[in-house]
Design goal:
about 725 residues; mainly alpha; Serine Threonine Protein Phosphatase 5, Tetratricopeptide repeat; 32 helices; about 0% strand; disordered N terminus
Amino acid sequence: MSLINISSTFDLPNQFIHLTGSYYVQKVLDVADINTCLINHSRIQDPKELLDIFPLFYSIVIHFDEVSITEHAQAVEILLRLTASEMSDAQRRIHLGLSDDDRHSHLNVIKMLSCLIAEYIIRFDNDQTNKSPDVDMPPSKKRKKAKASKTNEKSSLTSDSLRDKCLKGLCDIIRSHIKPLWDPSIIDEQFVKCVTKPCYHLIRRTDIAKNPIVKENLPLILTIMINKFEHAREASIQFIQAVKLYNSNSSLLIDVLNLLLTNYQDTSLAIEFLKEIRETNFVAAQADNASAKTVATFIIDMARLDPDIIRTHIDQITDLLTAESRHIRVAALTALCSVIEKLLSSEELDDGQGKMRDDILEKLRDHVRDEAAFVRQHCLQLWISLVIQEKVPVKQYLRVFELGLDRLRDKACRVRKHAVTLVMHMILNNPYFVIDSTRAQIEKGQNDAKRKLVELRQELEKLNKNIKEDKKMEEKKSQSDDEDSGAEDKTIDEDNEMNVDNNQKKETEENKESIEEQIMRVEEVVTFYKDGFRFIDLMEQANQDVVNLFKSPTLADCIQAIDFFVNLRHYRPTLPNMEQNLRLMFRLIWSVNESKCKALRQAFVKFCFDVSPTIPPIHIPLYQAHAIIRALKDATYEEELYFKEILKQLIEEKKIATETITEALWKFYQLPYDDNTDVIAGKILTFIVGNEVNTKLNDITDIIQTKEKNHRFVHISCLLLQLAATPKK
């Protein structure tokens, strides 16, 4: 047995080849001796025997190209068998307690195994003579047949397969909680370098992340080395270099970050990585674009998994807002937005937290006008997210709305698209009024609040006046008491009177405080109503600005504007000019663009045929018929033609149930209405029956016979009969 396990700990070299001629390897075996020794030690079981036969495995690595793949496989099998045995024994001994000699012995074996396996990983990966034939591309059918004809044993003897076995073996060592073998105050940097070296080597290999063995084991090795062996600083440097030079494997590095934050709650890598990013210049050149995207993914993942890291290092994130790369700027904005969403959205923030939130929101507002359309677009997306989650403070709501309106005129189509979406969600999630509120209702609420405020101020003024008069009376009384001082028989009365005065003062002060608090609350209500009026003004402006997008030559603008009005259809009572704008929208039905026509048909269905789920099924056709009538009220002859064309296309596509709608329209047509509902119903009936044969001729005839109306009724009824009786072509 060697004296290594007794006298000292195995020292890992800077370079593997430096072990030649050392205390551990006094002589390198030749190839013939290697084969003989492998046969002699093929059944070795005790890991401590590695201390004696270490030169054998070292010699195999030194003569790597001269040793056959079969002999390499034998060596790997022995090493992995010893690894499994050593990990089992070491864990048991650590649990029971180790003497110094035992600790040295196990540490030597583990270091030797790690050193050999790590070097094997690199050598096997570099070996080009025994590569798997399908390592970089899927095999052809002929190759599959040829491969199937070989034995499983022979086909598995490739450099890649042996490399993967060694990587898994190295991961087994690192996962075995071996840290107690070292002195707690010492970080074995040579061991860390030895273990992580093959990991960083593999990251340089194109698309190695697609290998399932590598994807499972490599991130875990690096994660444990960072968490247990303080490798965060060096790892952050290596990560940046890998991202810039070997971006195809960036998913492995992201997995490391996720494992650290999720499984270990370890922020060391994230903190070091942020420092490294700030010192790295990601320019906007094409070559740096991919690496910047990966770094951006790192930042976003950090913010998603642990936003407190971003809050703690907010200055570093803020510095990234001036980065040349647009992807880095977007990632920084996304990270800041995560801080608001998860940490700074409460209404009970202290002054420092409130200031941080306001500063972040200001930066988000600033970058809505970023020079890059890519950044403007994503910044609007962040605002949309905040609005939907109701994370925008009410006091800043109007400023954000104005921001969205401003971007409706952006030169980039994708920015305009998200600006429309932002404005839409701000209306849908507005804090000022409910869907069916009208300007008159809001004005009444504001007037009531103002009236209440005037009353409270008058009451406070009156109370202050009384307090002032009481104070003057008290001063006069005090002077009188000074002149009459010395009379002992008045002392008790004076004390009682003083107590009464004090109680009255206390009650008056309490009343004053109560009134002042009420005034503050009512002032807030008045301001709220004032902002509500301003919000309605902005809504009307948005309504008109979005209508202007119908004139845009870009299809995406038109589709987005249609979606805007569809989603805000329930705000028609609040927006008096919305009906006219809807008619401008439906004019587009004559477009030659089928996508635009389809969007309009879908919009018409939403407006007229979508009813509340609380409506009884039997009444649904009546609600739908009334919605169609409403859409056609006060329409010009030209606008009637647009609606007729829409109904025609919907009937042809069988998107509406014409029979039930026709019956409902007849019910509106039978009775006179002051608002011409019956007239409009008659027009719509001519549209529908002109495109759909009505099989209920008897019903129509009965209506005409039982009800005498004016000439208009008879004319339309006859027309309907004529159309219904005309067979379809």
